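Section 5.1 Outputs to date
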Amino acid sequence: MSERRDRFAVFGQIAQDLVLRGEALPEPDESVSVSELRRLLGGKGANQAVGLRQLGGSVAIVGVVGEDDIGERLVTALLHDAIDVCGVVRRGGSAVLVDVVDPASRRMLLEHVPPTSLLTVADVEASASAVSRAGTICLQSQQPGDALSAALMIARRADATVALDGAPEPEVRDELLAGADVVRADATEAEGLTGIAVSNLDSAHEACRWLLARGPRIAAVEVAGEGDLVVWEDGSAYRAHDDDETVVDRTGGGDAFFVGLVRGIANGWSMDRVADFAARAAASTVARLGGRPELAHLVR
């Protein structure tokens, strides 16, 4: 049982992250100097898989990379991070995300996500044997709804814990919420899921209770960029974000919170301890440039 507890599968995006720190965010027709450039393995799925691996998990990822040079580098990077790539599909062109950050931690994100870089039902079904041993299966909602439904079926057959990140397509929202044990959403995603504008702690509680009524046993919602609320049947925990002076780049903070949440729940910790751990994971990630997590120090 302990071995399965430490096994995770992530269905989500794999992308090349180009992260640039500039003296300012450019206005239209304006150029700015770049003081730092980083090329990273990225995308929400890859960031979550890497974070779970750093926290001691055995992790398989199911996602798509291109048949181009970028795709080759992404697979190499996943292997370097000790991620199981049996569920990685090669086709088309790779997704590329450009994150531009200024000294005040404001950012601009440009996304090139070819349709071929998204998961299909066939991709998911082909991964079943590779991920069926996982104790927790993570579904990243930026993927097509039918692919996520197919992944949920695999999770049900495997009797795995299902953790849902973000707001899936409306056509599969109710099915995925009913099948999820854990759901996490930022403020915008939470409003898309629930119709509740999450602008303060009270509205975050309302959104979490709405989500719990649809099936999950644990719901986590970002509170308008100010903190994160975790709610379960008989309790709740709110953790404020760190002071802005410690923040370099907020990219990946939500992914890291999700990773900490999932890992702590799999460990069987108390929910207060889980909330603390998730908040520490997010704070560690936003303190550096780019969305790639560096979380191993949290378990030493």
